[in-house]
């Protein structure tokens, strides 16, 4: 890891909300105790975590990287040092995972790679700053092997290789030595009155021609394609696709366009733009395809066209970057590879929508505590965040599959309003509301994915297509400026807890009988994260339809037995001499009053209650019909018999029954 990343991770950043740091996990058990007239159960609820028995002194500070190689050691360090610890063994090219001091886990995911492996196989931050190495110009570290010409002839202009797949472009004629500036290489004067500009992206390249002055005639740019077995095809909607021998698309480029240097005050973009005509020709010897770009002579000759004019920002990607945008009606097809994302409208006519997809596999089956989508807004149509007509930008969960390269205004995936979140934050308009992050709290969407809903990603759009205060322009995963800083890229940060395992019933044992009217209910459960666990118990009627009372155990170590003793009176059992006691109860589903027969409506997972025997009297010893436990009742006043009929166990962290206890941060 480089120094900057070490420094970033060395300080503890608290969880998203104070309510998240108070509890670690709970388990849900339903413990069914049946007598003639009652059933008991147990469930779990979030609860405040007990204060630690020993804590570092208030003045203790831990310096150095907050890192550990595996989950177990990271969790221990996080608790002891009271700061988040990165689990370095779980790094991927687009995700970072931390153990939090409260026992939860946080994973931050990006729509594209933020790191790549160096020659030693170590993860390092991507750095697309160009340098000349071995007669070629290359980025310091990218997710693909990218190389540009260092000038001269006989070399490819640019090529991108990933694994065995390679595609490239050439130039007809000699190239001057390029001027290098961060990720950009400029070859001056090679086109008609203009420069050829190449930019290294994380997984590909962008190339365009910049005309510095108005040309005297028609302009044509020819780029021979060296594609390593691929063939370029123009799609029906005008995009370019690099396809292998089986017709599978391996790289794409959006519809070529051009724009001038004028500024539209509403959109923040160029005032004049037009599409570029594209042809796929053959080289003189017929061995290669040639991409031919023909900008409109009328556009170039217009008196109001402001120079310089940029022609064809063709972005060629060979990786899974999954953010893009479309706009009616100037950019109707996918702009995958663009350095920005857009949403909303600035005039009620032009409407933009962005599509993003993140890897959510990490928290499948987990209890999501917090989920935040964050984008960096560098342009807004207003500073207003409230008032008439201000509705903001909404995030929705996508519910159908889509191709980041093929999505179009006429081919958009479906979405759902369930869990949708809108914000009106305005950043990037002027010095009163400068550029900064916009954040959507999408807990419900994160939990839907964790619960098994298919992950098709997210859509950003204005809440209203007529709200001109909603126009936003964000940085995308392809925004590069050399040394990579993921802080401005789209990210999804999710904090979650692993649900405890199934509860094991400890006492009373299944099918046991007791004359104790205040039995201690006990069980145990294992938390996969090793966090402390508590159980919540409920006592129900025999029919399993009404809860009579409930209680909770204290927090105990994972796997340790814990219990709860219901305090009387949780039932009524007046005696009448030597006669059988009567108790307040919910009537049984079947059978006469006073003694229910086994109910035909059982609690979930619970078999019918076993038959009962008459209570003992006069100190006589008797055995129950079902269990090997025995009862001695020296008192002449009989007590009812309670039996365990079954146990129902699930893992349900955060189940609220009867109500959650207040949660406070662990200090």
Please explain how this structure is put together.
The protein is mainly beta. The chain folds into three domains: 1-64 and 71-104 and 496-569 and 644-667, no CATH class; 112-320, no CATH class; 321-489, no CATH class. A hairpin with a 5-residue loop joins β7 and β8. The chain starts with a helix and ends in a 17-residue tail after the last strand. The model is unreliable at 1-59 and 571-667 (pLDDT under 50).
Entry summary:
This protein has 667 residues and is mostly beta strands. Helix content is 5%, strand content 36%. Strands 3, 4, 5, 6, 27, 28, 29, 30, 31, 32, 33, 34, 35 and 36 form a 14-stranded mixed sheet that branches. Strands 9-10-11-12-13-18-25-24 form an 8-stranded antiparallel sheet, with no helix packed on it.
Q: Strand tally, please?
A: 45
Amino- and carboxy-terminal Cα gap: 30 Å
What is the SS-derived class? Answer: mainly beta
The domain count comes to 3
**What would you call the quaternary organization?**
single chain
Task: Indicate the percent of residues in helices.
Answer: under 10%
Largest sheet: 14 strands, mixed
**Which shape, going by the Cα principal axes?**
elongated
Low-pLDDT regions = 1-59, 571-667
**How much strand content do the residues show?**
35-45%
Mean pLDDT level: 77
Individual helix count: 4
Radius of gyration: 34 Å
List keywords for this structure.
667 residues, mainly beta, 14-stranded mixed β-sheet, 8-stranded antiparallel β-sheet, 45 strands, disordered N terminus
């Amino acid at each position: 890891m480089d120094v900057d990343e070490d420094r970033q991770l060395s300080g503890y950043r608290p969880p998203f909300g104070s309510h998240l740091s108070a509890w670690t996990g709970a388990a849900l058990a339903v413990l069914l105790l049946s007598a003639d007239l009652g059933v008991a159960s147990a469930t779990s609820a979030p609860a405040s975590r007990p204060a630690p028995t020993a804590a570092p002194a208030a003045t203790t500070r831990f310096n150095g990287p907050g890192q550990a190689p595996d989950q177990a050691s990271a969790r221990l360090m996080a608790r002891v040092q009271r700061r988040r610890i990165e689990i370095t063994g779980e790094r991927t090219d687009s995700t970072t995972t931390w153990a939090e001091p409260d026992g939860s886990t946080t994973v931050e995911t990006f729509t594209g790679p933020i790191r790549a492996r160096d020659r030693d196989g170590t993860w390092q931050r991507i750095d697309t700053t160009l340098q000349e190495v071995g007669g070629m110009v290359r980025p310091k570290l990218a997710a693909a092997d990218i190389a540009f010409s260092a000038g001269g002839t006989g070399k490819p202009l640019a090529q991108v290789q990933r694994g065995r797949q390679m595609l490239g472009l050439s130039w007809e004629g000699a190239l001057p030595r390029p001027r290098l500036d961060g990720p950009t290489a400029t070859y001056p004067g090679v086109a008609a009155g203009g420069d050829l500009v190449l930019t290294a992206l994380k997984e590909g390249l962008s190339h365009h021609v910049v005309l510095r002055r108005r040309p005297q005639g028609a302009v044509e740019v020819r780029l021979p394609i060296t594609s390593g077995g691929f063939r370029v095809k123009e799609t029906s909607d005008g995009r370019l696709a690099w396809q292998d021998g089986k017709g599978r698309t391996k790289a794409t480029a959006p519809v070529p366009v051009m724009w001038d240097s004028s500024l539209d005050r509403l959109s923040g973009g160029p005032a004049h733009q037009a599409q570029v005509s594209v042809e796929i020709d053959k080289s003189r010897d017929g061995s290669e395809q040639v991409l031919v770009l023909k900008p409109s002579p009328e556009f170039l000759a217009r008196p109001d066209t402001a120079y310089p004019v940029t022609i064809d920002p063709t972005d060629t990607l060979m990786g899974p970057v999954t953010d893009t945008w479309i706009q009616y009606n100037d950019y109707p097809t996918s702009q995958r590879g663009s350095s920005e994302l857009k949403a909303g409208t600035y005039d009620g006519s032009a409407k933009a929508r962005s599509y993003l997809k993140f890897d959510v596999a990490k928290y499948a089956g987990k209890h999501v505590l917090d989920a935040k989508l964050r984008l960096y807004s560098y342009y807004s149509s207003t500073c207003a965040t409230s008032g008439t007509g201000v509705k903001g930008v909404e995030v929705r969960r996508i519910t159908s599959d889509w191709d980041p390269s093929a999505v179009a205004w006429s081919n958009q995936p479906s979405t759902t309003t369930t869990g949708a979140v809108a914000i009106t934050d305005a950043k990037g308009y002027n010095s009163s509301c400068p550029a900064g992050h916009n954040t959507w709290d999408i807990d419900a969407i994160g939990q839907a994915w964790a619960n098994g809903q298919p992950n098709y990603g997210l859509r950003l759009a204005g809440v209203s297509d007529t709200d001109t205060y909603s126009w936003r322009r964000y940085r995308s995963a392809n925004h590069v400026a050399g040394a990579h800083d993921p802080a401005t890229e789209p990210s999804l940060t999710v904090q979650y807890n692993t649900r405890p395992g199934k509860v094991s019933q400890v006492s009373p044992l299944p099918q046991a009988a007791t004359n104790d009217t205040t039995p201690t209910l006990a069980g145990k459960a294992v938390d996969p994260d090793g966090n402390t666990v508590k159980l919540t118990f409920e006592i129900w009627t025999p029919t399993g339809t009404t809860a009579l009372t409930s209680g909770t155990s204290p927090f105990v170590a994972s796997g340790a037995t814990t219990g709860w003793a219901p305090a009387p009176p949780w039932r009524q059992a007046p005696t009448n001499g030597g006669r059988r006691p009567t108790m307040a109860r919910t009537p049984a589903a079947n059978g006469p009053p006073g003694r229910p027969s086994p109910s035909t409506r059982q609690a979930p997972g619970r078999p019918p209650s076993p038959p009962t025997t008459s209570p003992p009297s006069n100190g006589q010893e008797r055995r129950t019909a079902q269990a090997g436990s025995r009862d001695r009742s020296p008192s002449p006043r009989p007590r009812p018999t309670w039996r365990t009929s079954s146990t129902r166990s699930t893992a349900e962290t955060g189940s609220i029954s009867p109500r959650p206890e207040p949660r406070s941060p662990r200090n």
